[in-house]
Amino acid sequence: MNRSLLGFVLAAGLASSSAVAVAAQETADATNQAEGSEMALDAPKFLQAAEQAAKDGDMDGAIQLYQSAVIYAPGDPVPYERLAEFYVHVDQPELALRYFSLALDAQPAYAPALKGLALLDIAAGDRAGAQAQHELLMHSCGTSCPETAQVEKALNSGAKP
Length: 161
Fold this sequence. Notes:
The chain has helices at 3-13, 18-35, 43-55, 59-72, 77-89, 93-106, 111-123, 127-141, 146-157. By secondary structure, the chain is mainly alpha-helical. α4 (59-72) runs antiparallel to α5 and α6 packs antiparallel against α7 (111-123). The longest helix has 18 residues, at 18-35. Mean pLDDT is 80; it is low at 1-28 and 30-39.
């Protein structure tokens, strides 16, 4: 991918306008058609790149790439949830809470986001909040859901799994 397109997409990751996302997609589509050899940009590719950037210690780059994934798939809860998990790992629970909530806005009862909120509640000492998230998990995906089991384990041990 050429550098100017990547710069535009990363800059778009910092904006919240859906018009910017549409423009970025149209620009990427036109560039990909013109170049022929490049794969289309999409949220999973941004998520993969973000995870690699985080592993490489490029935290600012990881955030921009996660935000680009959100722009490419604003109705998909996965990019929000992955960004929230990133913020959990870098000890920014307020931002993690925000993005878990945005994942639930995109898809109510999204199990990974409910699990994330429950674990944040446990870490903050809010057992009642964690139990409420556990109840939502029980209703949305049942006892066979791995997220339900992880929250139940954390509630029983009083610690994060």
